[in-house]
Amino acid sequence: MNIHEHQAKEILKEFGAPVSKGIVLLSLNELEKEFKKLNSKEFVVKAQIHAGGRGKGGGVKLVKSFEELKTKVKEMFGMNLITHQTGPGGKEVKRIYIEEASDILKEFYLSCLVDRASSKIAFISSTEGGMDIEKVASETPEKIITNKIDFKKNIDSDEIEKIIKPFNFNNEQKSTAHILIKALYKILIEKDATLIEINPLIITKNQKIVCLDAKMNFDDNALFRRPEILQLRDLNEEEPAEIEASKHDLAYIKLSGSIGCMVNGAGLAMSTMDIIKLHGEEPANFLDVGGGASKEKVSAAFKLILSDRNVKGILINIFGGIMRCDVIAKGVLDAAKETNLKVPLVVRLAGTNYKEGKEILDKSDLKILSATDLNDAAKKIVEAIK
Ligand code: ADP
Ligand code: MG
Fold first, then answer.
1. Gap between the Cα atoms of 17 and 211, Å rounded
2. Which value, in Å, is the radius of gyration of the alpha carbons in the chain?
3. Are 288 and 266 in contact (CB under 8 A)?
4. Which of 62, 106, 212 to mutate to test the pocket of ligand 1 (most atoms within 8 A of CB)?
5. In this structure, are 278 and 207 located in the same domain?
6. What whole-number distance in Å separates Cα of residue 24 and Cα of residue 5?
7. In the listed set 179, 211, 237, which residue is the last one of a domain according to the structure?
8. 71 and 182 share a domain?
9. Where is the domain boundary, 191, 210, 237?
10. Which bound ligand lies closest to the C-alpha atom of 54?
11. Does residue 259 come out as left (phi exceeding 0), alpha (psi in the -120 to 50 range) or beta?
């Protein structure tokens, strides 16, 4: 789960990290009252969406008077912000953060994340912070330094020194940086964050260190024990179909292709997507209906796939282990009737109650193409949508 920059900064502050003062607005009406809490002459108006690259897309604006601030806030509310992370559709700005402006001397990059491959916590630092870190990573990767910490041993001063070495801090800055690194480490562990990214981390012209941007991501599977994090969830920022999926406990991720997939098991779902691509088409979604899905769950999954307007055909690929093929067949039939299915449907069933499942589908008046194996199934659906 992602949260907004202003929420991430609130957490950073709670753990003692240096952040600027700011106010958050959900509408223009709140501006006048909230503004009194700020104490500065220059401000930065920042669109709060769950995507980076806002600066380049016009979602971060420096203003030098209250009048100018008001104009910018007015312009930004409701604006469709397109960045390299939102996709071409962009995202509507529904929330704005206003922060006291900092006088920037240098911009650095600092992040901390769970490194699954090494089972460690990785800190990544670079002197080339700001808005082009992706470019730095691809063109001058030697400017990005990674330090991995064994979380069973906790983090010590020597390790912190290595992490901040590229920044060449003076002694006072170093002591702030030690507090900051410990805070990031603690947030990662105590809040089950999987990624914390500060880009840019700056030195001001007064030599102070400030976290000027903050991105945090949390482990969805740990949210049950972090209610204070779960309450930061902003459903406006999530794909409606994915919210619907989470209500039915379905693992669904919307993609941009045209073949809807319903599969049981994450691995099988991945290979189904691969094989669709192999035959020259793109999957419209990842969908794992899970092990022992009910008829209702299958039906909800089917409707979810069809709610995507890009879907031109559906491929159902089920290996019945705990899951029974006849249950799948019944769920598909119900949902197909309810939704008045018009797109081609290819079904490949194997395993438990496969014969019963096939019989249910064959007896129905639905036009279903059945397939013998996964390759055959992918070939048939790709041909059918042409
Ligand atoms: P994004 O990463 O989405 O583009 P940032 O929060 O990193 O958004 O802002 C982009 C740039 O805007 C920063 O690299 C920094 O140069 C500038 N900026 C952001 N916040 C402030 C601030 N409070 N004061 C001064 N400049 C800022
Ligand atoms: Mg940034």
1. 8
2. 25
3. yes
4. 212
5. no
6. 10
7. 237
8. no
9. 237
10. 1
11. beta
What's the pTM? 0.84
Q: Is 354 a catalytic residue?
A: no
CATH number of the domain that residue 110 is part of:
3.30.470.20
**Residues 140 and 243 occupy one common structural domain:** no
φ/ψ (deg, to 5) at 308: -85, 115
Are 227 and 109 part of one and the same domain?
yes
In this structure, the answer to whether residues 1 and 150 fall within a common structural domain is yes
Rounded Cα distance, 112 and 161, in Å: 15
Integer Cα distance of 107 and 128 in angstroms: 7
Residue 142 bears catalytic tag: no
Pocket of ligand 1 (CB under 6 A): 20, 44, 46, 52-55, 60, 99, 101-102, 104, 107, 130-131, 199-200, 212-213
Together in a domain, 42 and 69: yes
**Nearest atom of ligand 1 to the alpha carbon of 101:** 24
- Do both 87 and 124 map to the same domain? no
Instruction: Tell me the mean pLDDT in the region 328-338.
Output: 87
- CATH number of the domain bearing residue 343: 3.40.50.261
- What's the CA-to-centroid distance between 54 and ligand 2, angstroms? 8
Q: For residues 188 and 217, what is the distance between their CA atoms, to the nearest angstrom?
A: 9
| Beta-carbon neighbours within 5 Å of ion ligand 2 | 199, 213
pLDDT digits (tens, 9 = 90+) for 112-157: 999 999 999 999 999 999 878 889 989 999 999 999 999 888 899 9
- Provide the CATH number for the domain around residue 63: 3.30.1490.20
DSSP code, position 167: G
Predicted pLDDT of residue 321: 85
Query: Residue range 269-280: average pLDDT?
Result: 96
Q: Pairing relation of β-strands 60-63 and 43-47?
A: antiparallel
Range of the domain at 62: 21-101
Sequence-distant (6+) residues with CB within 8 A of 138 are none
Q: Please give the distance, rounded to the nearest whole angstrom, from the Cα atom of residue 199 to the centre of ligand 2.
A: 4
pLDDT for residue 36: 94
Q: How many domains does the chain have?
A: 3
4 and 137, same domain (yes or no): yes
Gap between the Cα atoms of 6 and 22, Å rounded:
8
Tokens, residue 26:
């959900």
User: Rounded to 5 degrees, what angle do the CA atoms 17, 18, 24 make?
Assistant: 100
Q: Which amino acid is at 53?
A: G
